[in-house]
Amino acid sequence: MCRRLLMMALLSAAFILMVADSVLAQTVGQGTAELFQYHRGMDVFFMLMLVAFLMLFIKRYQWGVCLATLLVFAVAWPLYLLIHSEFLGLSLGIEAAIQAAFAAITLVIAIGVFLGHISTIHYILTAVLFVPAYMFNEWFMFGYLAGVADAGGSILVHVFAAYWGLGVAMGLRNPSVADEPKRTTVHSVSFVWLASMLLLVLWPSFVTALLPANEVIPAMINCFLALTASVLTTYLACYLLQRKIDPLVYTYAILAGGVAIGATVNLVTPLTAWIIGALGGIISTLSFIYVDGWLHRRTGVLDTMGVHNLHGVPGIFGGLVAMVVAGAPGSQAVAVLGAILIGLVTGIGSGVVLRVFPRPELMLDDAEAFPMEEARSGEADVAEPTPAMAAAGSSMVRETS
Amino acid sequence: MCRRLLMMALLSAAFILMVADSVLAQTVGQGTAELFQYHRGMDVFFMLMLVAFLMLFIKRYQWGVCLATLLVFAVAWPLYLLIHSEFLGLSLGIEAAIQAAFAAITLVIAIGVFLGHISTIHYILTAVLFVPAYMFNEWFMFGYLAGVADAGGSILVHVFAAYWGLGVAMGLRNPSVADEPKRTTVHSVSFVWLASMLLLVLWPSFVTALLPANEVIPAMINCFLALTASVLTTYLACYLLQRKIDPLVYTYAILAGGVAIGATVNLVTPLTAWIIGALGGIISTLSFIYVDGWLHRRTGVLDTMGVHNLHGVPGIFGGLVAMVVAGAPGSQAVAVLGAILIGLVTGIGSGVVLRVFPRPELMLDDAEAFPMEEARSGEADVAEPTPAMAAAGSSMVRETS
Amino acid sequence: MCRRLLMMALLSAAFILMVADSVLAQTVGQGTAELFQYHRGMDVFFMLMLVAFLMLFIKRYQWGVCLATLLVFAVAWPLYLLIHSEFLGLSLGIEAAIQAAFAAITLVIAIGVFLGHISTIHYILTAVLFVPAYMFNEWFMFGYLAGVADAGGSILVHVFAAYWGLGVAMGLRNPSVADEPKRTTVHSVSFVWLASMLLLVLWPSFVTALLPANEVIPAMINCFLALTASVLTTYLACYLLQRKIDPLVYTYAILAGGVAIGATVNLVTPLTAWIIGALGGIISTLSFIYVDGWLHRRTGVLDTMGVHNLHGVPGIFGGLVAMVVAGAPGSQAVAVLGAILIGLVTGIGSGVVLRVFPRPELMLDDAEAFPMEEARSGEADVAEPTPAMAAAGSSMVRETS
């Protein structure tokens, strides 16, 4: 009997231990993981703002890019959470906050296609039109389809951003933007270098933001491997094709490794990650140099910030690579195709709606929204010709004047 | 007897488990929370430096702002810790490091009122005068009063910064600063956009830096909701009142949602957070457009960086909102009033002390502290007139020359 | 017997508890520490990019610095991991990722000595030559020697960077770089202020990146104390010696406190940390003002970015301070001497190899790698003389033209 007692005592102790263990594990797991996720989430918000600075190369249109970014963020992020919690009845935690940040960053990328095509105030409406379309695509990828690999947002963020943006630009039909001057200066491009280099080092937090804690470190290493690969191959591709490095190709295409690795960052070996990144950089460079002009001629759409070359093409590549390495190639292909089609259709629809409103009087120009007299006066590279210059027959005159 | 034995065995096991559980929970809780707090603290230090860049719009007075920020940080942070640990005998951990960073960031905000009013070297003395005053107000709010809600520093940081700074400017009585030129350029303001946008996304780490771990995620969401609200309402208020967006109002006032939500960030629902932020943005915009000039005429004090409009007024609003939602409305009102009065009195005292020393030869001008010849020569927008310009009767001449 | 049973039951329960406890502790300890280390690691990558911006003061050579930084990072980081995991058979986790980032940041610092001395494409080869040398020194310090204190990289990173870089410059023998113009502008230096101030606040993550979790908070406080001390003493030293503050001395030397505290950041009291930082700032300032020119005359080597003054001299000082406070003064001295010698010898070897390749046609000039016509045209401070200027006999002409 005492042996039975001993057994019972031990079993009871073991049972209590198991319960305690699982409770503790859960506490530790959830608590730590959530706190940890807070900071990866904060990095995503940081990146959202840096995306604006990646687009600051047109000196006379810097503040407008910042303002548009802030406005779409200010509408899209709370709107996503509102639909998420009020209409869909889902919980409001760090996971939702990051998903909403993904939606907002997708929109910030997408407006890069048609920045300067619309008046500043209409970015508010743009965000209202975008969020339901994004959430529909999100549901299509992860609710309707099964087994789609896209932890780091190659498809959800980058492909959808590019094609929704292109759709809007098509719906808007405002080809005269292409004729506007896009003068860069040394420092306007230095801001782009800053943004590109900081985006690069924050990228691992983006692709791991929604991963379980135990997958974060390997995915971080994969992400950096893909990015270092695209930094290198982009340089070589630029050098071989054009000898001189175009900074507005280079600072963008080096990030293509991060775009391309998104779908498979938690599924591949380090070597495969490096190869995906290397190809991503080359594909993006080729897209900037060859596809961009062709697309402009074909569609009449000026992709102001080259969104299609950095996000569209490398995103499709990354999404399709997952057909080979992930489990469900069918779903994967449908997800890529779906993001393109849903993006184009809802984008064109949004563009048609935005077209109802009057066009901006000034395009790609901060003076559309801001009083620019003081800041521009006396700055040789943006100023209207001063009397002295005019008197001397100066050629230091902006293309617009 | 065996049943009793079993009971005893089970009870013993349960007891051991309980002890182990509490030990573990403590380890996990404390360890994790501290490590987690390290990074929120690091974000606060990051923000301290960004506050300097928020004030970089006067092109001929950029480096001086950076230098003043570094000097007051270098004195205030260790001085707070010295008093905290040596004189008050409190422990030196992450909590103290963050509290000292709060003191230092409050001072960096405060000097915004009188930047350019004093010589660079006197910022060292300024920090020595500030820290005891700040610590007295901190003790008044949380040691003397009971139940004051101010987790995110609406009162402790923002109200105190504004009124201490105004006090110093009043004590200094140096009205001629108002006549100095404050020329901005496109890029000097682009630095301000960068600082404002990065401050915005880091703000949740500031308001949650001293919160217990379990309150961090909800407070983060509340903070972002308040900020997205003020980004939107500030735009609408600027647009409706002035049609054009003044970037030196906009880049500042969008942060007022963060200032206003500080006192109640861990106490309100998401919807209330959004409303507080929305009102904060409007109030700050109104303050920039209407109160600023009135205050200048009334007090003769030029608030160089508009500290009162971003930190003072929205801080008071945020502090008073807590009267409604928090438990101790009496304490809350006294805390706000106390911060204003303690700030003004100790600030005026400090200003009177600083007034003993000779005034700077150059005000709002980097040349007061730095050799500027090389960096300025050849830059059309800051240079003295070159022979070529003079010969041609150029109007590209700075207001000072 | 039943008492024996009870004993057995309790012992069994205790044993199970112990096992469970140790398993849990390990999970918590390792898991949390790793997740925590992820973010300190991310800060290190962030700093790597900021080091580039610390070197952006020469306006006509900004983009080239960014490109060189990206290229050496893109080669050095994966190469370190490749050797680490494939050749040395070590595991690939967060520890390795950070160690590789240390290697890469050391190289980014080191190229500061000879930036502009070689063609852009040769930075790829530079990184291939650097990594084995760095890893040999790392093995010498921590594998061959015993008891060397250098948690924060005073010796491993800073001393080695300075002397390897000087070695390369000696091997290259390209003295004509010294004659190239190095014009700064207000904003080119404002980028340096930004980089310096953000590097300063991120520094604690660098010196604690490889520390065990329980040493992180005290080391963070020590690091900030050292940095606030050097911010203050650098100002006082500059002010007393030169009256005016040279921003290209100040923005660099304020970081010397972080360099100097590296070796002993986890071993000293707060007061000692402050003193080490204070001396570090003074030593670095003296090195910039007095040693720099002497070294240039002695060796014929132009240290483009003053690496020796910020990293070399304060690094040696920090490494030697550890002789007093750490346990193994002999090892410590040998480690410092070893880093200097291994750095110089392998650096000179690398320089000799790089000298085989043709010299760049343009030095310290973005036009070596980028098409600069558009960005420079119309910018008075970098532009070739425009017709208007030429007609008016303008003096607004760059030294190069």
Attribute tags:
homotrimer; mainly alpha; Ammonium transporter fold; 0% strand; disordered C terminus
Summarize this, please?
With 401 residues, chain A is mainly alpha-helical.
* CATH hierarchy, class of chain A: Mainly Alpha
Global structural class of chain A: mainly alpha
Strand content of chain A: under 5%
* Count of domain modules of chain A: 1
> Biggest interface, and residues per chain?
A-B, 73 and 66 residues
Q: Which parts of chain A are unreliable, with pLDDT below 50 for 5 consecutive residues or more?
A: 21-30, 381-401
CATH superfamily of chain A: Ammonium transporter AmtB like domains
Shape annotation of chain A: globular
| Count of β-strands of chain A | 0
Order of helices and strands of chain A: HHHHHHHHHHHHHH
Mean pLDDT of chain A: 89
**Alpha carbon gyration radius of chain A:** 24 Å
Count of helices of chain A? 14
CA(first)-CA(last) distance of chain A: 103 Å
Commentary on this structure:
3 copies of one chain form a homotrimer. Chain A has 14 helices and no strands. Chain A has a single domain (about 35-360, about 365-370), classed as Ammonium transporter fold (Orthogonal Bundle). Chain A is globular, with a radius of gyration of 24 Å. In chain A, α2 packs across α3 and α4 (about 120-145) packs antiparallel against α12 (about 330-355). Mean pLDDT of chain A is about 90; it is low at about 20-30 and about 380-400. By secondary structure, chain A is mainly alpha-helical. The interface between A and C is large, with 67 and 72 residues.
